[in-house]
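Shipment paperwork, digital attachment
Item: protein structure file
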Amino acid sequence: MDQIKAKLMKPSRETKQETVGKIISYTCIVAIMLLVLLVLYFIISFGMSTFTTNHVNLWSFLSGTNWNPSQLDAHGNPEVGALPMIVTSFAVTVLSALVATPFAIAVALFMTIIAPKHGKGFLQSIIELLVGIPSVVYGYIGLTLVVPFIRGIYGGTGFGILSGTIVLFVMVLPTITSMTVDSLKAVPRYYLEASLALGATRWQTIYKVILRAATPGILTAIIFGMARAFGEALAVQMVIGNATLMPKSLLTPAATLTSQLTTGIGNTVMGSLPNNALWSLALILLLMSLVFNIAVKFVGSKGDLNK
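Attachment content:
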């Protein structure tokens, strides 16, 4: 009797497998959380060194227009004005999203509502191909085709915000398109059928029913595309000119936060003011990524409430 009771109380093979699975899962979760916390601590501690160790004024850093950390201005303060990179980063991000969004919505509507089955598969393959192309390839294509094209039409060097916007437009287009397709597919089928049954045309149904129902998802796709554009470094660096000057037009060379980081981080000494100033730029990028994530959560929660 005792042997039977002991056998019944003994953990089964499935129970042991479940326990092992839980241990592995919790270990991975803790490791990921520690990794994220270490990354945050590393970037924040080095990024704040500009203000705590080098005693640079925060407002001067955010609003200054001269970037030359190894030089002092007329008042004896280091020239670490990050405003030109901040303005340029937002300019290429917003412009590329504005250009890409209409194309992405049009392609997504065609794929989900209009195109025949083989057409959807073909466009899906094209989008997956664009997503998988490395950034350096986009940058090389921009350097070979876009920059000479801009130079031939408008003159100048061809490097600048306009070239960066065109390259980023191609890069964020598949991201916004694929997420918009998912949003349109999530709209209940009976919305479409009810609208058509009430006498609305297909375009009236698309404009007044489908797009309105999918608006939170489309906004989320746009924010994701902007986050991708804001954090892109290599491709933008190859076509924007990398001049840390306040942009006066779309055709003058400029520099984004990411392009300045990639070009300058290897030429500075760890712990020096020029190096700390670059870490402060990285801290701005981190904060903007958090803002984009919060925006995605906010828009997603609004979409859930409206359903």
